[in-house]
Amino acid sequence: MAVATNGEPQQGMEVRKVLISDPINPLCVKILNDAGIEVDARDKVPMDELVKIISDYDALIVRSGTTVTAEVLAAGNLKIVGRAGTGVDNIDLDAATKAGTIVLNTPGGNTVSAAEHTCAMLQSLCRFIPQSNEKLRAGKFDRKGGMGVELHGKTIGIIGLGRIGREVAKRMQAFDVKTIGYDPIMPKNVAAKFNIEAMDLDAVFAQSDFLTIHTPLTPQTKGLLGEDAFKKCKKGFRVVNCARGGIIDEEALLIALNDGVCAGAALDVFQEEPPMDSPISSKLIAHPLVIATPHLGASTKDAQVKVAVEIAESIVRATRGGALVGAVNAPKLVNAFSPEIKPYVALATKMGLIVSQVLGGDAFLATNSTIQSISLFAKGDLIKDMADVLKNALLTGLMSKLSDDPVNLINAHHYAKDLDFQINATGTDKIDDLPYKNVLSVSIDSADSTHTYEGVVVAGAPHLITINNFEIGAKPNGHVLFYSNYNTPGVLGKVAGVCGAHNLNIFDFNMGEENNKKVHMSVLNVESPVTQEALKDIQAIDGVLGVRYLDLE
Length: 553
Ligand SMILES: NC(=O)C1=CN([C@@H]2O[C@H](COP(=O)(O)OP(=O)(O)OC[C@H]3O[C@@H](n4cnc5c(N)ncnc54)[C@H](O)[C@@H]3O)[C@@H](O)[C@H]2O)C=CC1
Ligand SMILES: O=C(O)C(=O)COP(=O)(O)O
Hints:
Elements lengths: L1 E2 L5 E2 L6 E4 L6 H8 L3 E4 L5 H7 L5 E4 L7 H6 L4 E4 L9 H7 L2 E4 L5 H16 L2 H9 L17 E5 L3 H11 L4 E5 L5 H6 L3 E2 L2 H7 L2 E4 L13 H6 L4 E5 L8 H9 L3 E6 L11 H8 L3 E3 L8 H19 L22 H17 L12 E9 L7 H14 L11 H5 L5 E7 L10 E8 L3 E9 L2 E7 L2 E5 L3 E9 L4 H11 L4 E8 L5 E8 L5 H8 L4 E9 L1
Parallel strand pairs: 3-4, 3-5, 5-6, 6-7, 8-9, 8-11, 9-10, 11-12, 12-13, 13-14, 15-16
Antiparallel strand pairs: 1-2, 15-17, 17-18, 18-19, 19-20, 21-23, 21-24, 22-23
The structure holds 1,4-dihydronicotinamide adenine dinucleotide and 2-oxo-3-(phosphonooxy)propanoic acid.
């Protein structure tokens, strides 16, 4: 168990040192420091420096300013990338998953701020407030150029009816604006509960006086509002983008504004940020019908406190084995590090280690023909919903002997793609009559046989309870000798003698017998690796049927 610098035990993920690479409220540092975690807080770290220093850290906390590329992830050994905010399009999620890095965000912490900014932008856009302010400062009292439109009685089309989209709808309804919207995962009846009329995207385009986007930037939403969409929009529509640059095609928007198709755009986000180097973004920012802010949606003291506290608390919780709230790339791992589930994860990993060492023709413990599939059954109320996580743990053990890369719960399934057999995982209520509440069972299926191992957790520690037909109570730890023998007196003494002769100190012994009691299976835990010579000497003992050494360190 790792110990944090404040002396408190870390029972979950080990996080000793964190880098913050964007401006974040100081409460984040305080919460991490109070938990004994060292923090380097910087406002900005250039990419080449980030790649150089990242291996010094267990976790990285970012906002939208830092791009967490595959190169950054490969250069480090990060356990966590924390996003103090919502959008994770600046983080290479696939690369993070492959690197075994969990990505956590703080959805919800800046919802209200982003929604309020959206509404402020729409109102400002409709009444030319920024442009008029600018003219007045320049000494021009231009009332004609500030002729706007009311919100009252108009229709707003909200694309993306998640947290922010719904908060925008609520605020627009207070202005007597009709709220319609599109979201592929929100059924009409659910949208209706928020007084939003859900319809298909083309209908939203056709009916909206105002459009506002609240989706993440994904391959599906990139360019969602482009030339084709603008052709379907009402002439003179106005558009707000407080979601992500790139969801509106900036070139198409510029044309729509110049052609009078679009009467105004309020932009908080840009295809490239900062946008000054992009000629198209710069033209948009300078356009008289455009108002723009430099990605300020979440920039309120209130939101920044919320996201800073949330991300720090999530990381501290992860180090203590708590739920991984906001896990973006591995949502099923939410409870994998909890004190109740962790020993089962350890058990499944040990079972994977066993499987890795009996693969490929081990007639004694597994099979002498090619494996076709492995099935894991998570039986019992505590673990039945964790079958996928336990499968990843099994894979972690399995791959640890087969791959040089650091395989863990988050990335195991990537490596498993190269195996030439399937691994299935099923969670069930426990129906067998074993006296345990939760049992993990792993079956190895080959053309001619099925071999099964079963394990449980006793007093927080993994135990093997059956190996094929043998009932046993072995601890799957360290250096383990398995041997089977006919039920004749004196075999154990002789095996112990061979161990002594080979300097193998035995510290635990468990024996099981087959139902017909003719054959015994014994498990010896020894303190050091077992040599081939020792194995040969045990195999030569009269009555010994088979012997196998497994390294379960
Ligand atoms: N400007 C700023 O400072 C901020 C920007 N954001 C941006 O806003 C986005 C939305 O945030 P939340 O509402 O909290 O996220 P959310 O996850 O609650 O909602 C996003 C919604 O978009 C929907 N969606 C996904 N693909 C879609 C598509 N093709 N068409 C229509 N809907 C689609 C999803 O089903 C989901 O309901 C974030 O991903 C982030 O990029 C968030 C906070 C601050
Ligand atoms: O949370 C989000 O998605 C945002 O866009 C806010 O970005 P920021 O944290 O202000 O860089």
